[in-house]
Amino acid sequence: MTRILFICHGNICRSTMAQFVMTDLVNKAGLSEKFYIDSKATSTEEIGNPPHHGTVNKLRQMNIPVLKHRASQMTKADYDNFDLIIGMDEWNYRNIMGIIKNDPDQKVSLLLDYTNRPGQIADPWYTGNFDQTFTDVMEGCQGLLNKIIS
């Protein structure tokens, strides 16, 4: 089983979107029994809150199931519990490393590292652009799934 943890700042926009998109891709590929997918935050700001309404609206628009979710914070123990820890931007990456301290197994990456255009996924909390975030998340998740199953 491949265990994937998506990370963003608050765990209400990008990481939850990635969790739900990846879960949908895995389910449609008939691989749900081979994956465990979750998402968490690096901060405590949104702990206990549901996904942002912009994320929920965009996923529903794209016919992707919105799962039951409440924001939670990543812990050092997550490093041992997951095979891949995937941040959305460099700030997330630095905060992940601050929590886990080191990455001897090279588990930590950014989602767009799995595309032909590595980079950062902008936070729609600030940009308001959930369409662009969705495009980036979908491309990253498709690339990630392709890399895992190939």
Layout of secondary structure:
Layout: E1 2-8, H1 14-28, E2 35-41, H2 53-61, H3 78-81, E3 84-87, H4 90-100, E4 108-110, H5 124-127, H6 130-149
Parallel strand pairs: 1-2, 1-3, 3-4
Helix pairs in contact: 1-6
Question: What brief labels describe this structure?
Answer:
14% strand; 150 residues; Rossmann fold; four-stranded parallel β-sheet; 6 helices
What can you tell me about this protein's structure?
- The protein is α/β, with parallel strands linked by helices.
- It has one domain (2-149): 3-Layer(aba) Sandwich (Rossmann fold), CATH 3.40.50.2300.
- It is built from six helices and four strands; from the N terminus they run E-H-E-H-H-E-H-E-H-H.
- It has helices spanning 14-28, 53-61, 78-81, 90-100, 124-127, 130-149; strands spanning 2-8, 35-41, 84-87, 108-110.
- Strands 2-1-3-4 form a four-stranded parallel beta sheet, with helices on both faces.
- Strand 3, helix 4 and strand 4 form a beta-alpha-beta unit.
- The longest helix has 20 residues, at 130-149.
- The two termini are 15 Å apart.
- 41% of the residues are buried.
**Class from secondary-structure proportions:** alpha/beta
Briefly, what CATH class?
Alpha Beta
Let me know the largest β-sheet: 4 strands, parallel
In whole angstroms, how far apart are the ends?
15 Å
**What's the number of domains?**
1
3D shape: globular
Judging by the overall fold, what is the CATH architecture? 3-Layer(aba) Sandwich
